[in-house]
């Protein structure tokens, strides 16, 4: 089981480096089935936070705080609600909800039309709250954030930099919430220490291969994988 857990993390961070999105969407459905949400969520958020330092440094020059502060504030305020919802819900409902989310996001990525530019004031708060609830519950706050970012016509480097900063800040909120609820057991911490070199290797492979990968085709392949992962969680 532990080997499959680490291989899942390796795949997730390879996808993060090569495609620029989706490590939690790749990892969480598998991790939840391997170890349950009470272990998967605190473990993955620690691993993602460690790898996030390198990703933030890589895209640091493109960061624009003025474009994201409303989104970030709304998401931070909603994280505790997501954590409380997840802790009081049975595993079957968690898996079904996550499966529906994955399928919806994959179908949007494969077939959805480009979004018009959304007004910053209203939609930043709305999608920020949605992201905070999902991130606090299952570490998958990415879809609302990506939808908002795609609608703002940011440069690709600014897109990656802004999202990485948002996740880095949100992750601390989720980590604190898990710590307050006593989720960081000896097993979780041991798996986290083992996952550090695994995540570094996954990122290194992804960064070394991304120059040879056609981005749009790779992203579509990831969306297809997410679609089947969603189906497997529901059925």
Description:
It is a single chain. The chain has 235 residues and is mostly helical. The protein has one domain. 81% of the residues lie in helices and 0% in strands. It contains ten helices and no strands. The protein has helices at 2-19, 23-35, 37-58, 69-87, 91-111, 120-138, 142-150, 156-180, 186-209, 215-234. Helix 3 crosses helix 9. The longest helix has 25 residues, at 156-180. The two termini are 22 Å apart. The mean pLDDT is 84.
Short description:
The chain has 235 residues and is an all-alpha fold. It is built from ten helices and no strands.
What keyword list fits this structure?
81% helix; globular; single chain; 235 residues; mainly alpha
What's the layout of helices and strands?
Blueprint lengths: L1 H18 L3 H13 L1 H22 L10 H19 L3 H21 L8 H19 L3 H9 L5 H25 L5 H24 L5 H20 L1
Helix pairs in contact: 1-2, 1-9, 2-3, 2-5, 2-10, 3-8, 3-9, 4-6, 4-8, 5-10, 6-7
Distinct helical segment count = 10
Low-confidence stretches: none
Number of domains: 1
Order of helices and strands: HHHHHHHHHH
Broad structural category: mainly alpha
How much of the residues is beta strand, in percent? under 5%
> Mean of the pLDDT scores?
84
């Amino acid at each position: 089981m532990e080997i499959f857990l680490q291989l899942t993390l390796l795949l997730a961070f390879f996808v993060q480096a090569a495609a620029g999105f989706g490590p939690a969407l790749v990892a969480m459905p598998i991790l939840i089935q391997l170890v349950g949400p009470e272990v998967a969520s605190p473990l993955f958020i620690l691993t993602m936070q460690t790898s996030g330092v390198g990703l933030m440094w890589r895209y640091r020059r493109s960061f624009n705080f003025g474009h994201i502060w409303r989104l970030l504030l709304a998401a931070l305020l909603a994280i505790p609600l997501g954590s409380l919802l997840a802790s009081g819900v049975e595993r079957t409902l968690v898996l079904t909800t996550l499966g529906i989310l994955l399928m919806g996001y994959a179908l949007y990525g494969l077939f959805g039309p480009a979004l018009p530019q959304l007004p910053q004031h209203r939609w930043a708060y709305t999608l920020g709250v949605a992201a905070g609830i999902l991130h606090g519950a299952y570490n998958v706050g990415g879809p609302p954030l990506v939808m908002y970012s795609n609608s703002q016509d940011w440069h690709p480097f600014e897109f990656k930099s802004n999202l990485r900063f948002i996740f880095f800040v949100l992750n601390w909120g989720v980590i604190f919430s898990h710590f307050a609820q006593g989720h960081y057991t000896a097993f979780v911490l041991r798996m986290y220490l083992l996952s550090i070199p695994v995540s570094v290797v996954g990122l290194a492979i992804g960064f070394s291969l991304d120059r040879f990968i056609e981005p749009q085709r790779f992203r579509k392949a990831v969306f297809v994988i997410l679609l089947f992962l969603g189906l497997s969680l529901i059925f």
